[in-house]
Amino acid sequence: MKLCQGSKKLKCTQCNYVTKLKYNLLRHTKVHDDPVELKCFQCNFTTKRKQGLLKHVKVHHGPAEFKCLQCNFTTKEKGCLRRHVKVYHSSEKFKCAQCDYATKWKHNLLQHIKVHHYAFKEFKCVQCSYATNRKDSLLGHITAYHGSEELFKCTQCNYAAKWKRNLLQHTKVHHNSQEFKCLQCDFTTNWKHNLFAHTTVFHGSENFERVEDLDEFKCLQCNFTTKLKIYLMNHMKAHHGSKEFKCLQCTFTTKLKRYLMKHVKVRHGSEEFKCLQCNFTTKVKIYLMNHVKVHHGSKEFKCVECNFTTKLKQYLMRHVKVHHGPEKLKCAQCSYTTKLEMYLIRHVKVHHGSEQFKCTQCKFTTKLETYLIRHVKVHHGSEEFKCTQCSFTTKVKQCLSRHVKDLHGSEEFKCIQCSFTTKAKQCLSRHVIVHHGSAEFKCAQCNYATKWKPNLFRHTKVHYNSVV
């Protein structure tokens, strides 16, 4: 049994950089020793390392040198071509002797055997009962749950984090003056890859340097088109692929391998993550981390423009964008507007898309794959989730969780303006909007007003149908 505790850290004498490897420290100090910056002559890229500049020029400005002999794939890096050939054109596989798992990468097989077929947990936490076969998982666990007070602190504000990558991301988002602007709309971002994705999805590729030769990717078997190649690959696998991944313990089948792996882990996996402060258990680590933050964490994120508070940072970011953000994304085919990109993509699929997902057991059709999956589970599935405290049963796990929380939970949410109390947070939000809210959604064609946005959408259909 290996007991993992903190090891000696090497610190930079000129900044807050720390590492456990001497090589990394030596490489880092070169940044301070050499003040000269190397600049790219074709763009604004700068670096203090010569090899970094050479790689940048080769990847972003060099011609495609390596071509696949079996398809149209081209790349500027030899290693990428080797990986492409092995993944898409090689039949060689490494197979697990204890189950049906197979992979084209030897290290994946070794990791699979270690995680799924070793009953003995090699690395154990000395401060709690957590055990794992992966050293990096144990280090992450110790840092997240038992870490010392040593934090990575921002020099420009009070932000502090246990992970260096979080501090780097915070600095780039909140204190970086460089912005990437869209040439066709008011969209701005601190992240270049966000601009790349935005330009590709909403404006095509003609005004962005990295996608200047990119057209739409079309499915040869249906009318599906996309501007991102990865979406086409996933579409082909899910809708036209003949290969299916089957669960050995139930009737679950899928055309995407990652869905099978998630299914096995959640439905049939034995490993559980337990909360040390209550009876909450889950088979998904991220769910435990969010649970600890929400129910036992003391840190709160507050909105500077209203009274909204939350214990999850992503909820605050979404709140600010939806309720206080100035920019709106507009649908090119109708008057629909939204402040969230994911809502616009879903709107285009549902109201203007031609692709349909059909149920093989009845006549149900939908334009969203998630709705089809839910339909099959509810109407044709055999698995049921039962409440241990009453006779309630459901085929949707989330419904059981909501039922337990609403009817059997001890936590109550109180209205600060009246005596209303409820065990469901969404009921309190609905109560505040209906009884104490002043915000209204108004129709642009008549005097109709409502406190619910879906009601306004339903109402506008009346004007639309009358015109048609």
How are the SSEs ordered, and which strands pair?
Layout: E1 2-3, E2 10-11, E3 18-19, H1 22-33, E4 38-39, E5 46-47, H2 50-60, E6 66-67, E7 74-75, H3 78-88, E8 94-95, E9 102-103, H4 106-116, E10 123-124, E11 131-132, H5 135-145, E12 152-153, E13 160-161, H6 164-174, E14 180-181, E15 188-189, H7 192-202, E16 217-218, E17 225-226, H8 229-240, E18 245-246, E19 253-254, H9 257-268, E20 273-274, E21 281-282, H10 285-296, E22 301-302, E23 309-310, H11 313-323, E24 329-330, E25 337-338, H12 341-352, E26 357-358, E27 365-366, H13 369-380, E28 385-386, E29 393-394, H14 397-408, E30 413-414, E31 421-422, H15 425-436, E32 441-442, E33 449-450, H16 453-467
Parallel strand pairs: 1-10
Antiparallel strand pairs: 2-3, 4-5, 6-7, 8-9, 10-11, 12-13, 14-15, 16-17, 18-19, 20-21, 22-23, 24-25, 26-27, 28-29, 30-31, 32-33
Overview of the molecule:
The protein contains 16 helices and 33 strands.
